Amino acid sequence: MTTSSPDTVLAAERAHLEYARDQLRRMQASAASLDASTASDPLNAAVLSGVLARRVASLQEDPSTTLFFGRMDQRSAHGSETFHIGRRHVSDVRGDPVVVDWRAPVSTAFYRASATDPMGVELRRRFGVDQGRLTAYEDEHLTSGERSARSALLAAEVERPRSGPMRDIVSTIQPEQDEVVRSDLGRSLCVQGAPGTGKTAVGLHRAAWLLYSFRGRLERSGVLVVGPNRAFLEHVGAVLPSLGEVRVRHATVDALLAHDTVRAEDSPQVALLKGDERMAEVLRRAVWQDLGRPREPLVLPRGARRWQVPASEVQDEMDALVRRGLRYSAARELLPRRLAHLVMLRLERSGDFPGDRAQEAIARSAPVRAYAAALWPALDPATLLARLLSDADALAAAADGLLTEAEQHTLRWSAPPRSARAARWSRADMALLDELADLLERTPSLGHVVLDEAQDLSPMQLRAVGRRASTGSITVLGDLAQGTTPWAATSWREAMGHLGRPEHELVVLDRGFRVPGLVIDFAARLLPVIAPGLGAPRSVRDNPGRLDIVAADPARRSAAVVEAVGAATGEPGSVGVIVPDAFTDAIARALERAGIAHGRLDADHGDDEDRQVELVPASIAKGLEFDRVVVVEPSAIAAAEPDERTGLRRLYVVLTRAVSGLTVVHSEPLPGALGAG
Ligand SMILES: Nc1ncnc2c1ncn2[C@@H]1O[C@H](COP(=O)(O)OP(=O)(O)OP(=O)(O)O)[C@@H](O)[C@H]1O
């Protein structure tokens, strides 16, 4: 065995990188030379030309990174084979791989092999990368029995100061994360994990892996990522494009269910009730109870005769349509044809065989259409919901035995609008409108949905997301301890049931990659109160982090915040100033007066300018992270929520956003649960 010096190894790997770059350029030139005009017709030529243009663009090299970040030498039936692993596949002129895609089956061993189960991997090499250059490498000899040292490159990646939007973690995906990423398309997973355990990262990489592995199916049916607000989606939105996947839709729950403009806000009590799963049955009944009962026969004049179908036969036909389990509107469309069929039977019995076209004509005739429309009226979600929320009798008929009278009273509008069009809908109403829309017409399903921060959705919202994956699968990410809505999930089994996935797999991630030890220990003091039984993450960070608690005189609170932010800006990395929502304007003014340039996040937008300092109202901090965080007045953050537990959960979210340092500035006493320890 020869041992090479580190310089020789690095030189050889750099040469391989140059070779891979040459091959990528060759692939791009060859794609660019393909001629779309050879297609059989102009339409095909236009499609082909689009495909080729996308292919050429996808073969563009990203100069800020390298074509591979790892290598493994693996024993196989053909001897030892070497694979370089990168974000995309590169092959040589014979079609042999020069770099294999991290998502290819062969790459699995790179992520999963260990000293206890080497999977034939004799050597795993990770590279240090800087601005498109290979700067270092780290070897593990898995089959030699040698114990692997802790990876310095992983540590460097985890410890790096955060700035700008979230990055991919493709070079350092951990084995327990990889199991989630590469789970089969048919499997619906629920990932419970404490803050910073990589749930979001894992969900996004799973979407990329699924698209690679099941491209044909998923490009047709689509993949959707659902997150809590726009600021969050902007934070995570660059990850999939950096992995070459530009066609994944990202949406907030609100955008997904935007059946109308939200112009009203419900009290927590009303919102809780509107989000309750019992509403699904109330709405189902409300739709179907509009079906009429035929009392008169269907009468159809035709030529000199009048044909009659008795009401009882019409009823049987309607019952048969209901039993078929069709959506209301689909069955409604069929009724005239079924009635025409009954008329045809009579015509045929009398010796008249007018043919199929006559059946269509009968179905479209005015008497049949009018008769069918009276029995099976056209409905629309807004009119139906407005009626339920305005009309005590209509609601009582649908909610009988499901909602108490007091609940029905709570649900009803105190001042009903004059018409459905004038209704002022709330966010919770959107999920009800969505349910109604689906009862009338089936909502199209996507191939896969990744639902992040799922603990915050009401049962009715979960149903709405679930129906968008009814013929596909779903990856659900969340943390029960971070639930901050009055309807937050208390059990994943229940939540997965609402999503239509009672059969699912629950995975728990517990290694924390974001929050350093000192900070997580501080935040975890809240856990026994907010989520008894749920553990804190085990921080994998080397750096214990910094925790500063600054007690300021009330008159000096803003000044203390400005000082803390000023100190934080002295180092590289992002700074998040997380404040009670009601303090946002005042703190913004204080920062401006002190000349501290900052962005301001809110539920509708992130910061497109990507500034070092971001001012973040506590209610939208979920899912975000900053290198250093200044939290202002924890007790006011907690007090802004409707109850103590929700308040402390909000605080837990806020305190777990920091990667290297947390400063807490307060004038009021800290919440009791934080003081202990
Ligand atoms: N394997 C990994 N290698 C390097 N960094 C990682 C790894 N896994 C996670 N991280 C980093 O840890 C941080 C937290 O990840 P992420 O936001 O996905 O966690 P989360 O569980 O969704 O957190 P939260 O519940 O607070 O939203 C991110 O900066 C992410 O890039």
Automatic annotation (TrEMBL):
<dbReference type="GO" id="GO:0016787">
    <property type="term" value="F:hydrolase activity"/>
</dbReference>
<dbReference type="InterPro" id="IPR000212">
    <property type="entry name" value="DNA_helicase_UvrD/REP"/>
</dbReference>
<protein>
    <submittedName>
        <fullName>ATP-binding domain-containing protein</fullName>
    </submittedName>
</protein>
<dbReference type="GO" id="GO:0000725">
    <property type="term" value="P:recombinational repair"/>
</dbReference>
<feature type="binding site">
    <location>
        <begin position="193"/>
        <end position="200"/>
    </location>
    <ligand>
        <name>ATP</name>
    </ligand>
</feature>
<dbReference type="InterPro" id="IPR014016">
    <property type="entry name" value="UvrD-like_ATP-bd"/>
</dbReference>
<keyword id="KW-0547">Nucleotide-binding</keyword>
<dbReference type="GO" id="GO:0043138">
    <property type="term" value="F:3'-5' DNA helicase activity"/>
</dbReference>
<feature type="domain" description="UvrD-like helicase ATP-binding">
    <location>
        <begin position="172"/>
        <end position="516"/>
    </location>
</feature>
<dbReference type="GO" id="GO:0005524">
    <property type="term" value="F:ATP binding"/>
</dbReference>
<keyword id="KW-0067">ATP-binding</keyword>
<dbReference type="GO" id="GO:0003677">
    <property type="term" value="F:DNA binding"/>
</dbReference>
<dbReference type="GO" id="GO:0005829">
    <property type="term" value="C:cytosol"/>
</dbReference>
<keyword id="KW-0378">Hydrolase</keyword>
<keyword id="KW-0347">Helicase</keyword>
<dbReference type="InterPro" id="IPR027417">
    <property type="entry name" value="P-loop_NTPase"/>
</dbReference>
